[in-house]
User: Fold these one by one.
Assistant:
Number 1:
Amino acid sequence: MCSLERNCGVSLSTDVDFSCLKEPEALRLIQHLARFDHAIHNSFTHLEASTIVKFLFNLGHLINAANHKLQVKNQAMDLAQARLLMFHCSRTVLANGMRLLGIKPLDRM
């Protein structure tokens, strides 16, 4: 996802119109991202790191599905910026969850 941000030709902005994200893959991904705090809280309450692992595993699947279906490059600017920010937020949540588990996220392979 880091390479998507580097190579898409769109600048990352927080001033985007999310109403253009209507695809089921985008909506499922955004709804899952919204549950990150809940996953952390449950993990802490029940002392189960597996709650975060399961959340991140599902997040990875949702990111992959969205990445295959939703292009950023060569799209209308408002749609491209909204999708790019969605993928950026996904990468940030994934990295934060990995750090909570003691795993260092990679920017390049």
Number 2:
Amino acid sequence: LLYTIKFEVAMAPKVQVSMDFGIKYLGSPSHGNLKFCLSDGEAIAANSVIVSYNSPVIDKLTTELLQTSLDVQDFSREVVQNFIESCYSGEPQKISKDNFGGMNKMSTVFEVSWLVDKCFEFLDSVDL
């Protein structure tokens, strides 16, 4: 006796989350639970699950090493903010000639390969 089971694999829909998602719920352990520590002593909060989804490095740091803050003092506030917004939206945010180097470096350090690709697409599309 032979049975055939047919099933379809559906991809999860792309989820877009507003940028304040991590900021709005800072008191909750599951929202705004990851701090990106800037050189000025300030920090930008983000949701570790959303950012980890895009970055295997951040995933390892938060799930295996249980880090709740990341030292990103080498990057400007603008670059860190754009990096986080890109992770939240799934689309590159505000890559420009001025911040290309920082965006590309941060995307490379945290191994966000799709964003590295988008940085180079941007580079190919502009006259330097």
Number 3:
Amino acid sequence: DASSLDNSAEILTYCESQRIPVRYFRNEQQMGIANSRIRGMEEAEGDVIAFLDSHMEVMDLWLEPLLNIISRDPGTLAQPCVTMAAEIDVIRGIHTCIPFLMHMQYGFGFLSLDHVYNWENTTQPVPSPALLGGALVGLKSTLMRLYPRELVSTSWGVENNRLSIRSWLCEGGILVAPCSQILHVGCSDESLSRYLKSYPTMFDDAVTESAAEILNFISDPEERKVFLERSLRDVKQRNTSINMARDIAKHFPEASTCREYSHYTRDIDKKYVSFQEDEFNHVGAFFLESNPKMCLDVRNLALTVLSCDPGRYIESSQIFGFTKNGGFRTPQAIHNCLDTKSNDTDGSIPSFWFRCHVTSRTEGQLLGPQQFGYHVVDHVISHEPSGRCVAVLDDGYSVVLRKCNSSSNSQKWVLETPSWFWKRSSSSGSVGGGTG
């Protein structure tokens, strides 16, 4: 891209001069990664397109399993297993060789399947609700038809949101190949910190654009209206964003020949989000006692509060579970636990960025920054060592830890377990649920 400040241009020009089979194109101005990929597809002469981000390194024989997938189903997009290679606390040990979900209201996490803890032994491709990062392989004809061309947000991953939805509803979906391995060379703590600080400024456009894509696949006028109101209620300029979303949605008329969005929420998203019932005491959605339309939610592995309707509609990102060894987990990061980052002061912000401190899922008590519990009688979620509770701030969506106060409405969370959620465990013949 024209914004590159390293010596990539010199290296590629040299490769061309040495008759190495590289065709190099440089944008006259910065276009962003998505538009640059579209240009690359247009210039490409082959039938198959393979994308890789610049911070990824491939392992031997990474491409063949992906080609095998699309040869059997030309409409499918194939992805390799991505292993985090950086040794920094935030992502140490996270292996994303599992299905991935990019929340359509914008946030991301790592998903769990029934066999997620054992599937390192499998060689069969596994469906993934969404694309992870910039590593994918597909037919040029498929990608040219599906790739979004009207990108508003510059936030990371929005094009993946849109491409994932289109792939599942219009083509053959997304498969991860366990035998295809690549390394994700992570960033430093400093650069990651800069990204997280800039994220709130990108959030509104990202949410709007993701909602616009989904709008393409909702035909009922009343459902479209309700969806937009719910999805965009937390952006700063809601009316402007609603109009923008409607305008963006006009640019993909092919959606009229695809399946409805309800297919994704019913058969794709929730199908792959689950806990095993014999590992947890309390599982479900936690809504404010003072406002049942507001639930705990996870966005970018951080706790927040967003709108919900526990009786009718609950996002998979609004499901949480308390393990029997004291951990508070989300299916969006099944190996991670809610953590205070060793900061027990009032106003500290808990997140799911850190891997659980014990390796066993059911043995070994979680202590310190990851020891949380749900008190059924008082309806509070407490960090046991510090005596602080999960509370929502006056802005209505920010979540912090505050000294527990049984009379504070901001700390009262009622648990409801949706009927679709539980997966049967192999050791139990009954379906269970949390109580609250």
Number 4:
Amino acid sequence: MDLITSAVGGGDDKADSGGGDAGEDPEVVEARREIEEKRKEKHRKMEAEREDMRQEIRDKYNIKKKADNPFDDPGMEGRLGRKRKTPAELAAEANADEEEGGLLPANLSDLASKPGELVGKVTEKCTLQ
């Protein structure tokens, strides 16, 4: 039975730690944390150098920096998409859409009569001579 469970991947989870640090040495955990901090600091320095280079280019060619960039938000660091809207913002948008009337008219009879009105106006304006 052990042969079957090991071949299928079930059974004991002792060998598969799953990347957790439950059984790791505290020194190893501390070393990983320090390495991660060093890496982040290195990337911050590189980005600061790049920004200095960008600013020099902007100054050289008189290019103005764009004022609002949603990706400059420090909370958005590492995210690929845009900022998610809060439930309050979503509710406000829904209320604004309802006030505008939406895409469809309130009555279906209004929708049915519109094409007839448009055809009448077009025929009046486009007379053949």
